[in-house]
Structures are given as structure tokens and as C-alpha cells.
Amino acid sequence: MTIVKMTNLTKKFGKFTALNYVNLDVNEGEVYGFIGPNGAGKSTTIRLLLGMIKATEGEAKIFGLDAWSDAVDIHKRIAYVPGDVNLWPNLTGGEVIDLFMKLRGTGNKSRREEMIEKFKLDPSKKCRTYSKGNRQKVALVAAFASDADLFILDEPTSGLDPLMERVFQECVMDAKDDGKSILLSSHILSEVEKLCDRVGIIREGKIIETGTLNNLRHLTRTNLLVETKIPIHGLSEFIGVYAMEEKNQSLSLQVDAEYLDSVIRHISQFGIVRLESAPPTLEELFMRHYEGAGGAL
Amino acid sequence: MSKKQFKHTWMLGRFQLRQARLRILIWIVALVLITCSTASAFSNLYKNLEERQAIAQTMLNPAMTAMVGPSNGLDNYTNGAMMAHQMLLFTAITVAIMSVLFVAKHTRTEEEDGQIEMVRSLPVGRLSNLSATVLVVIGTNMLLSILIGFGLYILGIESMDLEGSLLYGAALGVTGIFFAAATAVFAQLSENSRGTIGLGFGVLVLSYLIRAIGDVGNETFSWFSPLGIVVKTEAYVHNYWSPIFLLVGLALLLIILAFYLNSIRDLNSGFLPSKPGRIHASPFLQSPIGLALRIQRTGIIAWGIGIFILGASYGSVLGDLESFYKDIEIMDALIKPVEGFSLIEQFIPVLMMVMAMFCTIPSLMAIFKLKGEEKKNHTEHLLSRAVSRTKVIGSYFVISMVISLGMLLLAVIGLWSASTRVMDNAIPISTILETAFVYLPAMWTMIGLAVLLVGLFPQFTGFTWVFFVYSFVVVYLGGLLQLPDWMSKLTPFGYIPRIPVEEMNVMTVSMLIIVAVALMIVGFVFYNRRDIIG
């Protein structure tokens, strides 16, 4: 069953086109990763889904209801965490959590305490004294203490430390196990890889890549830097090897994940002195996409 | 305390001056200009002793004493005595506010924001920042004293001699220094800048109240209030300098205390325990309207008190109105005499119009708070949950309407309760209520305009204030400035009948209400249709 369905969703601000015929579906019980650089249109898409702004063209449906005209009914069943959580400076975190839970209408008192404990939040402090990460925790506690059916999370971990990031990931997995659907916008690829079943990549208002993680895997290339006792030869005949470059004694190259094994086997014959590997950055993914499409940035 | 503790004080002082030079300049220029122009306005307005004595008569009541201070020079109410009596206290309060804000900003606020941490990591003494702030604020207040002192003297107004003028200036300066010193202590006690400013203003308000009680009743009380001590200088009347020295001495003690407390505490800590806040929201807070009310609470209460005091202060002069205003030409232009009505009956609608306009300000602010919330990305928290847009704007709208009614009521109660104390034939409260409440449709039209703009053109809400100032100038000063009649017909306030002098005009007033409702409906409809930015 499709929980979120966007059809030709377009949003123009004056002459600027923020979203350009976006089609995107989130199915029931899945975690959908929505990735893209800042300013690509992630937040605009989410604002449209929340009925905060009105689409210029196309439509967005959640639970089969219209995101704009049925906003209030939809919102009874969703939980939203913005990327930049701005709270009222003179209210405490605890007060804000209660307010948020009450405004949605549903929520669980004991889950509230459990989440506060889990995220190690001090709810007695005024929001003015909270750091960015703590303000995000307030929004996360309010979201995960609810029994929403759809979670819309807009870069929710940008201020969290690694420990809290893990707690967050646990919460997402728990929600998924309960059959909830999650739309997770992020530009941290590792997080998306860990959590998401399907991924959509947005750039300059257009969805440029979408599919399951396996599908996406062809996009991930590992960067390798090797130094060997004797110079390597024969690598250029391998498939899945790109951007090979010799630097002094060492060789740098990019390898598609599925060919990593055969490439490493080959290299090891030449006596490895040093081997460094780095995951591809989102930026490299975009570069790759555009190279593949034959266009330049 | 060794000398090392103060290393680079001068450099930090220069740095603070560099940061605050524009602010300091604006405060000083504004205070000097207002003081000197009031002094010359007094001397132009009241040309002879009789006129001044007529004013003095209106000042001879407890309400006035409570408000502006003891009435020392009333037997011989020279221009100087008038200045010291009517202006010194309020100017001193303004100087105190300036000093509290300055010290809080450069001590606790900078500490809270982490700037002091960076400065302290450099080879700078532990007390250097505080000493720099103290030096700058003392310097600012001394400069202010000298400029006001000589400024008043240079005006060459009879009875405003050099000594009196210098004392007047010094009285303002020491008030500033005293409250600066107190704030320096509070900055050590409280952990955050809000608390520091709160304590500073709290002591200021308390000083004002203790002085009011002392001046009206038991005079010993006044000596426990710095503001009470300041008015004991009796500048231009007796010229007592001892209160100045007393306040300087007290300020010095406070500064030493502040240095001591600063030297023994950790960075970012305070001596007052910061009490943990509520971990649960009260049932009251858990609704859009409860939230809207909570975030505006302090402001609304402050406005309520202000409006009530304004009403009471107008009420307290009503008793001597007849004798007071009949010789003053300027009042003829403001209030055109109408046969068959007493001066007071003609005066009240003018007062009420001014107060209705003042009451409009917090009503409009309540609507514009919604726009501010949107700018701060706060409305998304409501709209992303099961709260409709109508409910969000409706909450602010209801609060605004209640404010319009409540503030007007406070003004009426203030005016009425003060006037009954000073008048032989008290005005019935029903008359005042009628005069006041007939302004509600005009206020609602202004609220309607605000709702319309928030719903339709949120970027142009500032237009409301321009229109508001236009309304005030045209309706209040229209007669004085001899503006054409049609200009007052461009503002809702120009349509309100001045009861009891004029007849109630049901037709016009109902039209205004219809316009107001129409504006509100359009505003609501469009708020439901437009993009919300945050």
C-alpha cells in the first residue's frame, strides 16, 4: 500500500522552480531515504507534504488524502521532525514535548518518559539553553513518543553526537518493525544506507535517481589508494574500475562495490605496502550520475 | 586583588566603546535633546508665574506626588522647580534603564554567548572585563551629566542657574552609576542575561514604588530607594548635593562587591541557584491559544499596567482641569469649546481617544506576533500537527480582541478611580465607559487591517503602523495643525463620535463594524490559502 504519493509535484516561487515534476512514492512499512545537497528541494518537498505550502502543479497524497486540503486529518497520523528545530526560548523542553503531543492528539505518557531517558534529555531546562542537538532531541522525543503511522524526518541527526545518532537509528528501526512508514531526508549517505529500504536522490528540484538500495548500490564506488612493492599492471582491463591515477609510488582508483573483491585479489599479487579506502561522498555520487548521463555540472 | 587581575582593562574598555559607540551616542543625544527641549518648551508654554502656579495647583495631590515625586518647589514654581519636579524622576529612570542594559550586555550576555571565554583565554585579567564595563558606564554617565548640566544652563532660562543645572545633570548621572553598579552585582548572582536584566529592572520598579509610598506617606521610606534619594537633591530649589555623594558611595560599595563576587566564582556560573523548570506542561499551555497567550504573557501584563497608569495619571489631573486649562491657548485648538458642556465633558473624549489609540498598540502586536512566530519557524510545529490554520490565526485573533476590550477597560478603571479621588463631583463610570467603548469599532477595524495583512501580504504588515501613526497625528493634532477635514475621514478613528459632546451615530459605527468584520474574514480566508514559510 502506498502511504505517500507525489504525482508531478511542482512548486515555483516566482520565477524560481524549486520542484520540477517530482514523482515519489513511499510504501507502507518502508524507510524511504530522501537524499540531496542543501537547497536541492528536500525541505520544499516536505513542506508541500505537510500542507504548509501549496503546489503550483501536481498533487501530493498521504494516506490517500490530499496533503493541502486535508492537512489536519493527515497530521493526526504523522510525526514530523524539522532539520532546524526552533523552539520557544522561555518554555522548557518538557513543556514543549507535552504541547506537541497534545496538539497531535495521540501520544503515550510512558513512551514519553522512555524516550526522554533514551535520548538523555533534561526536560526541565528552558529551550533557550539547549544546543542544536538538544532542540532536535525535543522534537525527536515528541515524534517517537507518538503512535504516528508516518514519520517525516528532515535531516534529524545533523546536530546529534554519534551515540545519539545510534539511538535515533534504533528508534527508526523500532518504528519500522512496528509497521510504520518513514520518510527520512538526509545528506549523510551512511545513515541512509544503514536505515533505508529505498532511496530517492534529488538535485535542483528534480529526482535524478530512485530505487531500492540494491539498485542504488551500483552507484556506490569505493575510493582506493594503494602502494605496492612492484608496480601494478593489468588493472585497466578490469570492469568496474574508474579514475585510475598514478601518484608518485602509489595508485589511486575508484572501484564499484561489486567488483571490489576481484580488484583486491588482483592487487594483492603485487605485494601491498599500504591500502587506504574511503566511501564515496554524496558529491561523488552526483558527479558519477552526471558523468553517466554524459552531461557536465 | 592583585594588579594582574585587571590586566588589559583599558584595552577591553576601548573595545567595548568601539562596539557600543553608536548605542551610547544615541542614548546620550536623545537624553540631552529631550531634557533641553522640555526645559525650553516649559518656559515657552508657561510664560508667567500665574500660569505656573496654576499648574502647581494641579500637582498638589497624592496621585501626582506618587507619580512624579515630592512637591518641594510648588510655592514658588519657577521653570527650574517645574523641571526638577516633573522631569527629573522620569529622566533618571530612563538613564537607569540605559545603564542596566549596558552593563548586562557587556557582562552576563557576553559571558553567556561565550565571548568572555575567548577573551579570558588570552593574557587578560579575570576582572578586566567587569572593570572595563564599569569604567565605560561611569564615563558615559559622567559625560551625560556634564552635557545635560551645561546644556540646561546654556539655554539661559531664568531660574535655571549653573549650580542647579549641574546638580540636575549629576542627579541623572549618579542614578545611572548606581543602577550600573547594582546590575554589575546581579550579573554575578544570576546565571543568564535575562535574569540579570530582570533583577536590574525589578530593583528599578521596586525603587519607584518604595519612593511613591514614601513620598505620599512616610518620608523615611524614600531614603531606602535610590530614586527617592535622587529627588531629594531638589535641584533649582534648594540644591542639596549630599544625596549625590550618598549614591556615589553606595555605588562604590556595590562595585567592590561585584568585583569580589566575580573574583571568587567560576566562569558561566552564578550565585543564585538556577531552579529547574517544569518538566510537564500545564493543561492550560497545551492548546494553540494557551501557547499564544503564554508567549505574550509578560508583554500583555506590562501593557496592562502601563495603560492603567496612563488612565490613572489622566484621571488625577481632572480635578483641577477647569482652572488649569482655561488660560492655555494651545488647549483651545485641541478641544474646541462647545456650548452646554463642561470642560471636563469635552476633555474626556479626547483623553479616551488617545487611550484607545494606546490600547490599539498591544492589540495589533498580538496579531503581528503570529507573523513573528512564522518567521522564527515556530508555526510549523503547530501546522505539522493536527491544528488547522484557522485555529492558529484564530488564537491570535481572539487574544487581540480580548486585549482591545481589556486594555480599554483598564484605561477606564484607571481614569475613573483616580478621578473620583480628586474631583468633588465625580464623573459616573458609565459615562466614561460609553466614551471609551465607542472607540472599539475603530480599534477592531485596525485589528481587521492587521489580520488582512497577515493573511494576504505578510511582508507589508509594517503598513499598519504607518497608518496608525497617520491616524494619531490626524485625529489628535488635526485641529492644532489645521489639517483639512477629509484627512481624518481616511482613518477609522475619524468616524468615532465624541461622546458625550457628540451624539452617538449608530449608522457610522455599524458601518465600521461591518468593515472590520469584512477585513477579518478576508484575512482568515487568505491565511488558509497562502504558503507558510515556517
Structure explained in plain terms:
- The complex is a heterodimer of chains A (297) and B (534).
- Chain A is of the alpha/beta class.
- Chain A has helices at 42-49, 71-75, 93-104, 109-118, 132-144, 162-177, 189-195, 213-217, 260-268, 282-292; strands spanning 2-13, 16-27, 31-35, 57-62, 65-66, 78-81, 150-154, 181-186, 198-203, 206-212, 221-228, 241-247, 250-256, 272-278.
- Chain A folds into two domains: 2-217, Rossmann fold; 221-278, 2-Layer Sandwich (Alpha-Beta Plaits).
- In chain A, 32% of the residues lie in helices and 32% in strands.
- In chain A, helix 3 (93-104) packs parallel to helix 5 (132-144) and helix 4 packs antiparallel against helix 5.
- Chain A is globular, with a radius of gyration of 22 Å.
- Chain A starts with a strand and ends in a 5-residue tail after the last helix.
- Mean pLDDT of chain A is 88; it is low at 293-297.
- Chain B is an all-alpha fold.
- Chain B folds into two domains: 3-264, no CATH class; 295-527, no CATH class.
- Chain B contains 22 helices and no strands.
- Chain B has helices at residues 9-45, 49-59, 62-68, 79-86, 88-112, 115-120, 128-154, 162-189, 193-216, 226-231, 242-264, 288-317, 321-325, 329-334, 343-375, 379-383, 389-422, 429-437, 440-456, 462-481, 485-488, 506-527.
- In chain B, helix 3 runs antiparallel to helix 9, helix 15 runs antiparallel to helix 20 (462-481) and helix 19 runs parallel beside helix 22 (506-527).
- The model of chain B has no long low-confidence stretch (mean pLDDT 90).
